[in-house]
Write a structure and sequence with these properties.
The chain has 5 helices and no strands. With about 210 residues, the chain is mainly alpha-helical. It has 2 domains: about 20-95, no CATH class; about 105-185, no CATH class. It is extended, with a radius of gyration of 24 Å. The protein starts with 20 loop residues before the first helix and ends in a 25-residue tail after the last helix.
Length: about 210
């Protein structure tokens, strides 16, 4: 577990040793599958505001996962390691903030600081999209789409109250972007690294 905000930044990778031709290609194939399965989670584990609340519990061959033949002793040992990981988290988030050490206030401040960077970039991007030239020629911009009456398109309709709220929100985004540009500064200065981005993604479990 990272003890300070300078730790836990390096990329993780799946190593495989030089062995026989068949074994090397099999290992390479397994690395591809693990990358497809875990890459999003592993990239997120490097992010500030996330990495300091992750405790890595190392497993020996035959432990964890789908190893259904583990002995009672192995299961007990894994449970003890899990309790140890839990204690590390409790100790870290209960101690007072000091310097660059991980603490609850430092953790929450880091998450806010990272969010402000991503939010700033999102506002700038949206504002550019609202005011940029619309292609193809003759297509309505976003504000025109919001201000239309009962004209097509008719998919995903909003009522008058939501339409008004959307216009107010986009006006606020444009104002925020303008203030950022005029300020000559940015939340990206001395921001936690690596910087994150706000994007729409499909949730792993969609219950809607």
């Amino acid at each position: 577990m990272p003890e300070s905000y300078r730790e836990g930044i390096l990329e993780s990778f799946y190593p495989f040793v030089n062995r026989s031709f068949v074994a090397e290609h099999l290992s390479f194939g397994q690395s591809i599958v693990r990358t497809m399965q875990n890459r999003n989670f592993e990239a997120l584990m490097r992010m500030p505001g996330y990495r300091e609340r992750v405790v890595h519990v190392r497993l020996a061959p035959g432990e964890g996962g789908i190893n259904l033949g583990m002995t009672p002793e192995q299961i007990t040992a894994l449970a003890q390691r899990g309790r140890g990981a839990g204690r590390r988290l409790v100790e870290a988030f209960n101690r007072p903030s000091r310097g660059g050490r991980v603490s609850w206030d430092a953790h929450r401040w880091t998450r806010l600081r990272s969010t402000l960077v991503a939010l700033e970039q999102l506002h700038l991007t949206i504002a550019t999209g609202l005011t940029s030239k619309v292609e193809p020629t003759g297509a309505r911009d976003y504000m025109a789409l919001l201000n239309r009456a009962d004209e097509p398109p008719t998919n995903y309709p909003v009522n008058a109250a939501l339409r008004e709220l959307a216009i107010e929100e986009l006006d606020a985004v444009e104002e925020s972007a303008e203030r950022i540009r005029d300020s000559g500064t940015s939340f990206a200065e001395d921001a936690p690294k690596p910087k994150g981005k706000v994007r729409i993604a499909r949730p792993m479990i969609d219950r809607s």
